[in-house]
Amino acid sequence: MCKKLSVLASRVSNFRSVTRRPERPPSVIPTSRVLWLVAFAVVWTMTGYGGIAVGQVGSVDDPLDMADSSGDIKRIEAWVDEGNLHLTMTVYGVFAPSVEDTPAGMTNRYYYHWLLDMDNNPDTGYLNDEYEGNPTNLETPIGVDVLVQFGWRDGATNGVYAYALDPLTGDEVELFQEYEYTIEGDTIHAVIPLEDLGLEPGQTIAVSAFQEGASNDWQCDWVESFELTLEDTSASAYNPDPKDGAYVGDTWVTLSWSADSAAVSHDVYVGDNYDDVANGTGDTFRGNQGLTYYVVGFPGYAYPDGLVPGTTYYWRIDEVNEADPRSPWKGDVWSFTVPPKTAYFPNPADGAESIGPDDVALSWTAGYGAKLHTVYIGDDYDEVKEATGGTAQGATTYTPASSLEPEKVYYWRVDEFDGADTYKGDVWCFTTPGAIGSPQPAYDATDMALNATLSWAPADSAASHQLYFGMDQEVVRNADTSAPEYKGSIALGAESYDPGLLEAKTTYYWRVDEVDAQGNTAKGPLWIFTTGAFLIVDDFESYTDDDAAGEAIWQTWVDGFGVTDNGAQAGDLLPPYCEQRIVHGGAQSMPLYYVNEAPVTNSEATKPLSAEGGLRDWTLAGVTDLSLWFRGSTGNATEPLYVAVGSAVVAYNNTGAAKNLIWTEWRIPLQAFADQGVNLGNVDQIAIGLGSKGGAAAGGSGKIYIDDIRLYRQ
Q1: Two domains, one topology: 437-532 and 537-712
Q2: CATH, range 537-712
């Protein structure tokens, strides 16, 4: 029985180490250098080795990386089973390539590290907020006590082993070598007895990882930390086949899994609706059986009568043992997809910017059953969409016969032929250098604020812009200046548009056409985003270091700089004024310094909400809660944290908030301010502070970080 936690890796920082790494781990790791984290998804799952409960993982390969056959970390997993700690790591490419698998000119030398905070306490061990003098930009630094490492060079591994760091000298203290491990394709699976690491069942630890390699100049990949309780508490099915999120190139498939030792039989759920399978509703329950496989899509079997290309199917296995009162154990929802008949996974991706214009190579994944492919490309959407008569080819790559033009939007389409029928493909697009770009919200962004403002970077030859906006994709794509979707002409230098309050959970489309000095209009690409269910008060992304233009953060957040009774300072003293390493979302957060030393007892920064540019109506869209994220710093004095809206003050329920070294969300019911007399329909300012105004005596200094201030529906 096991509990497993799965984490997706994402690149947060791609700094390069100043010091080159030796052939194996260094014998001395200075106390100022500790390894570590970044931002991405943490998902609890109840599966065993091989289960991937987070769906298909898109590529996050770093464009700065060299094309080694081994790659960056894609996922790490950890769980406990029968007294052993199981650690897995999946990478992009081959995990431990042979010399023959290594591209010419590459140095096949890598080290992968799992990092363990044995007491789950960042104040002990070595805080991994920097590495060789460089910040790691991790949201949740931990106190690293033990490292488990795997390394190899030129196809020869040095195995999996664990070592600790002497707290006085920084020297390595090797614990054990030659732990059991297996490597299959892109994944390593290591098994380490808990007692070897001094761990006990029931203990909670923190786990993370990082990778470094010679072929990319020792550039590091960092993986966010997660907590893991060392308990064998579940009895879930695991090791799904096909793997979760896999593409299955057939219209029938045998689903199989590994059963937990406690299971006597298995409840099987299969369907094409995630919620139905997750909830066991509709006809998704396919029965109880003793077998650990189930056939779907094959003629004569109950469900379905042939899988449909282009469809994603979901399945779940609950483990059953009537003799155990905890039974049944609900399993994770896994998925697989039958590829569409049309081409998919375009490269460059749909909406890509600044491609070419020389040596442009297009590629794609062939549709289900495709044998020949016909490519159409041009700078007119309608022409590419309706084009016919192209020459079919067998390759899934295409290079235009001549260089493309700069400052253009190009469209391309791939039709697939399977020997019987032709399947018309979607129209994808990309831009060449100099064209309009950098849309905000970003192309295909999700969970955007209901009060989002649109912005973009103009084309090189633009003199003005024509903007179109709406909820119908084809209407917005084809609209002209006589259509309701046309929102007007926007002058060069004013590349933004406020669409007003948007609908929640709604997809919007927008297009910006560029008009040059001669009056010629170039049609822009179609951009898309989807809203969430919140309003932005401040995400700290718009501030710059241009104080002459009034764009510095301290010119909006009024602090106590030069004031005798306010010890606050919003932003750093020198540029960059906003924090660009320690952030919760986006690229910036607000550093807020507090100095509550006699006679000052309070430090507070205030943002006025002007009638023109501030969000003053806190009743819009049915919002009920104020949310903000905060993070403390090492060495901070204990001071109460509070938020003031008008004259109303709400203090955080833990006076040690400033010492919290992980990003923490604080949600405050808006009613708490209304109960103190605030008119939520006309809020004129919001303040964040530390000190006696929060209800306790002052007496100390420090720095906290604030990010993503939002208003949410309950």
Answers
A1: no
A2: 2.60.120.260
Residue 72: closest CA among 40, 105, 29:
40
CATH number for region 437-532: 2.60.40.10
Report d(CA 206, CA 124) in Å as an integer: 12
Give the CATH class of 238-337: mainly beta
Q: For residue 227, what are the CA distances in angstroms to 78, 88, 126, 138, 231?
A: 10, 15, 17, 15, 12
User: d(Cα 117, Cα 199) in Å, to the nearest integer?
Assistant: 11
Give the position of tokens 């905000």: 440
Strand 486-491 versus strand 700-712 pairing type: unpaired
102-160 tens-digit pLDDT: 655 555 667 788 999 988 888 888 888 887 777 887 888 888 888 898 877 666 667 78
Q: Is the pLDDT reported for residue 22 higher than 90?
A: no
Q: What's the pLDDT score for residue 166?
A: 62
| Single-letter residue type at 118 | M
C-alpha closest to that of 681 among 670, 690, 667: 670
Q: What letters, b where the CB count within 10 A reaches 16 and e where it falls short, cover 492-525?
A: eeebebeeeebeeeeebbbbbbbbeeeeeebbbb
Structure tokens at 462: 């633009």
For 252, other C-beta atoms within 10 Å of its C-beta total: 16
Q: What is the mean pLDDT of the chain?
A: 83
The predicted structure's pLDDT at residue 698: 53
691-709: pLDDT as tens digits: 987 444 557 899 999 999 9
Whether 46 contacts 331, CB under 8 Å: yes
Query: CA 624 to CA 622: how far, in whole Å?
Result: 6
**Domain parsing of the chain, residue ranges:** 3-229, 238-337, 344-431, 437-532, 537-712
At residue 429, the 3 state secondary structure works out as strand
C-alpha 378/C-alpha 709 separation (Å) is 44
Phi (first) and psi of residue 362, to 5 degrees: -100, 145
Measure the CA–CA gap between 625 and 710, rounded to whole angstroms: 8
Which residue, 713, 700, 438, is CA-closest to 594?
700
The CA distance from 477 to 14, in Å, is 37
Q: Give the model confidence (pLDDT) of 522-576 as tens digits.
A: 999 999 999 999 999 999 999 999 999 999 999 999 999 888 889 999 999 999 9
pTM of the model: 0.63
Please count the other Cβ atoms lying within 10 Å of the Cβ belonging to residue 652.
19
Residue 19 burial class via C-beta count within 10 angstroms: exposed 0-12, middle 13-18, buried 19 and up:
exposed
Which residue in 62, 39, 63, 48 sits closest to 4, CA to CA? 48
pLDDT of residue 107: 59
Which three-class secondary structure string do you get for 156-209? EEEEEEEEEECCCCCEEEEEECCCEEEEECCEEEEEEEHHHHCCCCCCEEEEEE
Strands 462-470 and 486-491: antiparallel
Max CA distance (Å), the chain: 85
Strands, DSSP E only, in 505-624? 507-516, 521-522, 526-531, 534-538, 568-570, 590-596, 602-608
Domain 344-431, architecture per CATH: Sandwich (2.60)
- C-alpha 672/C-alpha 676 separation (Å) is 7
By DSSP bridging, strand 134-135 and strand 130-131 are antiparallel
Lowest mean pLDDT among 117-121, 373-377, 463-467: 117-121
Among the residue ranges 72-86, 212-226, 617-631, the one predicted with the least confidence is 212-226
**DSSP symbol at 140:** S
CA–CA distance, 355 with 351 (Å, rounded to integer):
10
